Structure formats: structure tokens, C-alpha cells
Amino acid sequence: MNMRYLGYVAVCLTASVLGGGTGHTQNQITYGQAVQGLVQSGKAAGKVGIDTAAIRADIQTRINANASGPEPMMAAFAKLPHFIVQIQFDLNSDVIRPESWVTMGRIADALHNPLLLGNRFVIAGNTDNTGSRQSNLDLSQRRADAVAEMLVTVFHVDQARLLPLGLGEENPFDPNNPADGVNRRVELFNIGPK
Questions:
Q1: Which of 51, 109, 162, 192 has the smallest C-beta neighbourhood within 10 Å, fewest atoms?
Q2: Strand 7-10 relative to strand 185-193: parallel, antiparallel, unpaired?
Q3: Distance between CA 41 and CA 179 in Å, rounded?
Q4: 89 Cβ partners below 8 Å, 6+ apart?
Q5: For 31, what's the count of Cα atoms within 13 Å in the CB-facing half-sphere?
Q6: CA angle 73, 145, 78 (to 5 degrees)
Q7: Which pTM was predicted?
């Protein structure tokens, strides 16, 4: 079966939940881990100041100008601790594969926790550098939108709390290996109260 995996959903959990540093990959997330990490990161997120429209416009300008290097506005996200769990998509598709539905449900359960109900979340889609920058930007936006849509339509998360943002290949997880599958991910960041 020819599949290209999106890769990963980073759910802003603290290093203490992981028993180590941030950036670890795992295949599943528990409800308790999601709630604990998202609540803790929400305190830090209130100080970050994220403007998704400005980030989106800056990325498009960078692509049009053929600028290279990491997206500078993403530095604000780097201040938020997180780890990675896998969400899978078919090759060049924005349809979430059934094996990721349990993980999506656990994330949704966490977002329904009373400690998180007043918070908003950026759903940032990322790709590797296979393909054109513009097509990667479009694919990453469609995948971020798909995650948001599933959270809203299937799990009844308030749409106003979710801000999907496609980043394309502009913010690689592993900048030394831009074609590596680890760069294909969707990240969920708690950006604080609405």
C-alpha cells in the first residue's frame, strides 16, 4: 500500500510527563497526559502572543520571494513545551486514517476538560520538503483543517477554539534532514484563553 504519513501531532506536554526532554515521538497519548500537558502549557502560552494571520501572510511572502531558512515568526511556538504522537494520512491526502481516530478522540476528550474549556489552540500543519513549497503549504493547511474539522464535527469541540494553520515545509522538526518523515506533522498548541 503506497502511503505517505503526515506523521505527528504535538500536544504541548511538559517534559515531566515524558520523563525527559521535549520532542519525543510516541504512538498514543493518554487522556491524563493530554490534560496535564495542555493545562501547564496554557500558562506559558498566555505570554507568547500568536498571530496566525500574520504567520500565514509571512510564509506566503517567503515562498513568493523564495526565501530560505526557518519561519521566524514560529519562534514564539518554540517557547511552548511539547511532545509528538502520530496522526496518519494517505499519500497527498487530508483524510485522517482510521488508526488515528482513537488518538483524535483522546485529544478531543482533553479539550473538553473543564480546565481547558476557556482556551484556544493553534493546529499547525507541517510537511517535509518533498514537492513544491506552495503545494506543501496547501497540503499542510488542508491537514490542519482536517484535524480541526474532525474535532468539531465528530467530537463537538467549539470551532472558535481552534485555529488551523498550514506551515508547509517552513518549520522542519529536523532541519538537517528536510525530506525525513519526522517533519510531516500537525502540532496542537495551547495559546491561552479566548
A1: 51
A2: parallel
A3: 29
A4: 4, 5, 6, 95, 96, 97, 143, 146
A5: 9
A6: 25
A7: 0.78
Check residue 15 and give its pLDDT.
Answer: 27
Q: State residue 41's pLDDT score.
A: 56
- Which one-letter amino acid corresponds to residue 22? T
**Rounded average pLDDT over 2-7:** 38
DSSP state of 37: H
170-185 pLDDT, tens per residue? 888 888 999 888 888 8
Taking all residues of the chain, what is their mean pLDDT, rounded to a whole number?
A: 76
Q: Which residues contact 83 (CB under 8 A, 6 or more apart)?
A: 10, 11, 13, 17, 18, 22, 23, 24, 25, 26, 37
Which residues share a beta bridge with 170?
A: none
Q: Are strands 162-166 and 84-87 parallel, antiparallel or unpaired?
A: unpaired
